[in-house]
Amino acid sequence: MSAIKAKTGHKFGNMEEAPADLVSAINQLRKERNAIILAHYYQNSEIQDIADFIGDSLELSRKAANTDADVIVFCGVHFMAETAKILSPEKIVLLPDTDAGCSLADDCPADEFESFRAEHPDHYVVSYINCTAAVKAQSDLICTSSNAVDLVNQLPVDQPILFAPDQNLGRWVQRQSGRDLTLWPGRCVVHETFSEEALIRLKLQNPEAEVIAHPECQENLLDLADFIGSTSKLLIHSQNSSASTFIVLTEPGILHQMSKTVPEKNFIDVPGLDGCSCNACPYMRLNTLEKLWSCLKTLEPEIKMDESERLKAFAPMQRMLEMSR
Ligand code: 13P
Ligand code: SF4
């Protein structure tokens, strides 16, 4: 199979001087371009505040598939913008910084994945949306962290399943569904760095707090969690739970929305190993208001994809959207 490579116009650079009032300039350009700004919860607060829509991977995919806008500015990472292009090929899809990648997508090169699949020819391939278009094209079904368990539960019980690329999410889906999954050994650099020792210390200091965690975290941390879910599910849980303090095991960008929607509650983020603040996603945080303004002005960097290659990646994405209605 030929590898799919999404091409981008150019990497962010040589930006003309940004105006002093960036927010007004972005608002004017988004109107002129008939653009929609989509943002993931792990974006910087100022990007979340200017976005037309904020969501988890599933919600953002649905929005990208259904928008009337001519231009989609995807404030997230490369696989997300690529997914928007797969779902809306007629639209101009922009990513403010093309270096905004993802360790999970990087951990699963298409050629190695093809060999892995060849070793398991009878397996149905379920891939987490955090992968490249070339890996999506080799998959039977795409999932996100919010629908993975439900989708796996819909597959025939005697069907062997290969799950890629996040082994932590895969292990969690395995436990929730009772299915035996063959896992690709990928990992998220953010969710792998949380310190169990720091979490236990925070629990002792805040005995009334609920621990809420993203399933990309390692099993030893998930074992200490009271609630596990995608970013949207964590946000909704923080609103509905009777707890007033939460220890949050995911990228701290989500704390901005949590504090906005329930300002009377307390949200505590967990430091990484050695007390570092490496729990902020180094890829997500490459996007800035200046780069957002620049890409609206120049319509670059743009995500581009060959139509035949897009169609291969579209089929398992469409299956996901149909099965998770
Ligand atoms: P969700 O927002 O779908 O939970 O995904 C988390 C994530 O790691 C995105 O990169
Ligand atoms: Fe990838 Fe992890 Fe960053 Fe999400 S948080 S984009 S999974 S590296």
What does this structure look like?
The protein has 325 residues and is α/β, with parallel strands linked by helices. It folds into 3 domains: 22-102 and 283-305, NadA-like (Rossmann fold, 3-Layer(aba) Sandwich), CATH 3.40.50; 104-189 and 311-323, NadA-like (Rossmann fold, 3-Layer(aba) Sandwich), CATH 3.40.50; 196-269, NadA-like (Rossmann fold, 3-Layer(aba) Sandwich). It is built from 15 helices and 14 strands. The chain has helices at 22-32, 45-50, 57-66, 78-87, 103-106, 110-119, 133-136, 148-153, 167-177, 196-205, 219-222, 231-240, 254-261, 289-298, 307-323; strands at residues 7-8, 35-40, 53-55, 71-75, 92-94, 124-128, 141-143, 161-164, 181-183, 210-213, 227-228, 245-249, 266-269, 303-304. It has a 4-stranded parallel beta sheet with strand order 3-2-4-5, sandwiched between helices. Strand 2 (35-40), helix 2 (45-50) and strand 3 (53-55) form a beta-alpha-beta unit. Helix 3 runs parallel beside helix 4 (78-87). The structure holds 1,3-dihydroxyacetonephosphate (13P) and iron/sulfur cluster. Iron/sulfur cluster binds at residues 42, 77, 102-104, 130, 188-190, 216, 251, 281, 283-284. 1,3-dihydroxyacetonephosphate (13P) binds at residues 56-57, 130, 144-146, 188, 214, 216, 230-231.
Quick take:
The chain is α/β, with parallel strands linked by helices.
For this entry, give a set of tags.
325 residues, alpha/beta, Rossmann fold, four-stranded parallel sheet, 15 helices, 14 strands, 16% strand, binds 1,3-dihydroxyacetonephosphate
